[in-house]
Amino acid sequence: MSEPVSIAVVGSGYVGLVAAVCFAEIGHNVVCVDNDERKIDLLRNGGIPIHEDFLPELLARHRNGKLKFSTDLKAATHDAQAIFVAVGTPQSASGNADLSYVDAVASEIARSLNNYKVIVEKSTVPVYTNEWVRRTIERNGIQRSEFDVASNPEFLREGTAVIDFLHPDRIVVGADSPRAAELLRAVYYPLTSGEYYTLDTSFPGSKSKENPPPILLTSTKAAELIKHASNAFLAMKISFINAVANICEAADASVQEVALGMGLDKRIGSQFLRAGIGYGGSCFPKDVAAFRYVAEQLGVEFNLLKEVEEINAQQKIRFFQKVRSALWTFRGKRLAVLGLAFKGGTDDVRESPAFDIIKMLLHEGCTIRAYDPAATDRSKEMLPPSKSLEYVDDPYAAASDADALLILSDWSDFGQLDLDKLHYTLRYPIVIDGRNLYDPDEMASKGFTYLSVGRPSVHSTRDGVMQDSAQRKRIV
Ligand code: NAD
């Protein structure tokens, strides 16, 4: 492949680690840095700190070859031409992004700088961060000619991160100097030229030699804004369909049919039109808040984003009320919960809506048995097991003798349960599905009372299916 670039990636979390292995995969020499010694030890010894499809294969392929791990930023960046900063940017108390990790890394880079390098913001940061990084480095005595700061926001999704990285819809590079732009072009050349996709060993996906991803060169500020605006827009789409789902519930219509009809319009598109219990995770909640804060700071009212947040918060409460409507009272009820991660396919539980719902139910006196295919260990750190909360290793163990089963994450396995087994495992055949994984008619025909989001509830009778009607709701 084309000329390899020497790269350091600072921060080896969900983004940094995936970026590092993928940079190695497309031919570059990479050192992945983290100040968490345990994580680096684990990675050096063949361990994998996060659940992400294809990450084990890629790590096995490149560890000790094109990919090295280090806790020593100075040594790791010594030979690097580009330093990608992929540390966390959590939400601060004011709603703004807490940039202290980025600040700390910028100072450390400045103290280690030995020749010209491009410092690349991979973390999601508010507009103008590049200027602060530049100033921080200059304050440490480094000449402007010895470095550039660029922005290369990351759009990968947890659960499909490796494929998203290697087959991106677009690569955004914000650079205010031609030298920095050229280096970043070289970094992504194996993808943008299509070269990577011709290799026998390449991971298949939506891009190919004939249809490589485009690279969009912008100003650094525009690139910073593209990331915040994209995440805020996607969160808005989710809140929009959740609000529509609430109207569908009131009108006894199916939000799935409505979303299908909307999504077939190319101007709207079908993605992110899945009603549920609201968005969560380490990105959307904090990025919407940070974008709103940025707008405020710049004197722009962006009240739409307040509404996006409000609908999202309400969606969890509505689900909780739905559980109440199925169970009547809470105290002493035993519930099965499937799904703790903020979505299927990941072990990430940051800002998971499942936790908010579990906490509300525990507060009301329920006992819960919870199962998640990958997120149990992280969940135990957030919400330790107790008399009222047990973590189990199997969905049917969670369901055993439970008064109802709640589906809170969209793991594909949860949509393929053995319904007959589930029926006799539960104490009462009640399923309250926050992710719309089942067909209501099928659930009713299998003997379940089934409540989902934005679709008519169905109640089983042994003799057949009884749909909720507006009249029935009024009687209840
Ligand atoms: P993370 O918490 O998983 O990883 C951050 C890593 O940085 C941790 O391993 C931490 O130990 C390390 N770190 C912190 N300070 C350091 C320092 N001074 N030196 C070296 N390492 C340090 O975070 P993440 O989910 O990978 O997110 C990173 C950034 O990428 C955030 O800005 C996030 O908004 C953005 N992002 C995340 C996703 C996602 O799906 N997680 C997607 C796109 C963008």
Describe the structure.
The chain has 476 residues and is α/β, with parallel strands linked by helices. It has a domain at 6-218: Rossmann fold (3-Layer(aba) Sandwich), CATH 3.40.50.720. The protein contains 18 helices and 16 strands. The protein has helices at 14-25, 37-44, 55-62, 73-77, 100-112, 129-139, 161-166, 178-192, 220-251, 255-263, 284-297, 303-327, 353-363, 376-382, 395-399, 419-425, 440-445, 470-475; strands at residues 6-10, 29-33, 67-70, 82-85, 117-121, 147-151, 171-175, 215-218, 334-338, 367-371, 389-391, 404-407, 430-433, 449-451, 458-461, 464-467. Strand 10, helix 14 (376-382) and strand 11 form a beta-alpha-beta unit. The longest helix has 32 residues, at 220-251. The structure holds nicotinamide-adenine-dinucleotide.
